[in-house]
Design brief:
Helix content is about 35%, strand content about 15%. By secondary structure, it is an alpha/beta fold. Strands 1, 2, 3, 6, 7, 8, 9, 10 and 11 form a nine-stranded mixed β-sheet that branches. Strands 4-5 form a two-stranded antiparallel sheet.
């Protein structure tokens, strides 16, 4: 595992005709939350690599399906971007990045199209099968409503998030607040008598507090284990991809950004589960408590592609953000900075006709086939433009 302030002293894998990758050693980059962007800053100071980076953004269950559709459409038109030198995945994009390590875009696309879960009342957590013949049994899509841990569903979670953003001073404060809220629901904090700071009713004994702590610990472990099983069932392969893949998350206890890759010592299913833990609860990995990578900077985290010559960003949320513009977290700003550093960047957003599939409907698994088809058509339509960037 790397915090965002730490990057291992090993080269990235780049194409055969590439110049050597920029190397940032652990000793050269300070650690800790105060240096959270040191790695990206070091890369910005270097010349762009002759390599290609694929950025897969978050956007819920339908966002994951759209990403798969775009990748499959591009591949069908002869443009294979799934073999990028670096793939950066956040939330729904982390799921897609991991899935690409065990199945082709065409296989993943077929699995989405073949799965048409019933959605009689707009439920947010219907079942959707894993890749047929490749992964395990049917399971809910990892980014869906209640299955992702959102108490009261996605709409209630969004309302709570807006309130936290309004109360936050900046991005770092937001990460700390979201982490604290997730831990509060995960670890079962005691409810205090208003104005007293003491639990309601009789003060608990040391024995009862220890029993409550053990019970909360068991519940937390069970919830994370169940969530991990849901995520693992969606992955065609449980091992990390051979290619360079970085999945984003945030430490719920400190608010520090976290980067996960095959050298992190964290299993792929846990890394994806962490990146998709959208704030409803914190995913437990050993002593760590991790939440959704979309809280790091944005749903795309395209700034992590600094140093790559060619960058393709697929954003199911069309680069939108709930953050105040003054925070400087919008995708447009990240793209502008990448271009200023010498990178060639293309962004792809859902077509206007498909926008109804996202936002309030992003957690409806019944819409996944439609989102995938829309992405597939769009992928074929943009293939020529993307080929000019990629080849």
């Amino acid at each position: 595992m790397h915090t965002d302030s730490y990057f291992s002293a090993r080269k990235r894998t780049v194409s055969a005709d590439a110049a050597p990758a920029a190397i940032v050693s652990a000793d050269a980059v300070p650690t800790g939350p105060a240096a959270a962007d040191a790695r990206a800053s070091a890369l910005r100071a270097s010349e762009p690599q002759r390599g290609r980076a694929l950025v897969l953004g978050g956007g819920g269950s339908t966002g994951n399906a759209w990403l798969i559709g775009v990748l499959a459409g591009l591949a069908d038109a002869g443009v294979d971007v799934a073999t990028a030198d670096l793939t950066i995945g956040t939330s729904a994009g982390a799921t897609a990045a991991a899935q690409l390590g065990g199945a082709t875009p065409a296989e993943l696309y077929a699995a989405v199209i073949d799965a048409a879960p019933a959605d009689p009342a707009g439920a947010t957590a219907p079942a959707a099968p894993a890749v047929a013949g490749v992964a395990g049994p049917a399971a809910p899509a990892p980014e869906e409503g209640r299955s992702a841990g959102f108490p009261g569903g996605a709409a209630a979670h969004l309302e709570r998030l807006r309130a936290i953003i309004d109360a936050s001073h900046d991005l770092a404060d937001l990460r700390r607040r979201v982490g604290a809220a997730a831990l509060g629901r995960t670890e079962g904090h005691a409810v205090n008598e208003p104005g007293t700071g003491s639990p309601i009713g009789e003060g608990p004994t040391a024995e009862s507090r220890e029993a409550e702590r053990r019970d909360a610990d068991r519940q937390e472990a069970d919830r994370s284990a169940r969530w991990r099983e849901v995520v693992a069932a969606r992955l065609p392969r449980q091992e990390w991809p051979d290619r360079e893949v970085i999945l984003t998350a945030v430490d719920a206890r400190t608010g520090a950004p976290v980067l996960l890759d095959r050298a992190s010592g964290i299993a792929l299913a846990d890394a994806v589960a962490a990146s998709c833990a959208g704030g409803g609860f914190a995913h437990r990995v050993g002593d760590l408590r991790l939440i959704d990578g979309g809280y790091r900077v944005s749903a795309e985290n395209a700034d992590l592609a600094a140093g790559f010559e060619r960058v393709l960003v697929l954003s199911p949320l069309s680069g939108r953000s709930l953050h105040p513009a003054a925070w400087g977290t919008r995708l447009a700003g990240q793209v502008s900075e990448l271009r200023a550093q010498g990178s060639r960047v293309e962004t792809v957003f859902p077509a206007t006709a498909a926008e109804h599939l996202f936002g309030a409907n992003a957690m409806r698994a019944a819409l996944r086939p439609e989102a995938a088809r829309a992405g597939f058509v769009q992928g074929r339509e943009i293939a020529e433009r993307i080929a000019a960037l990629w080849r």
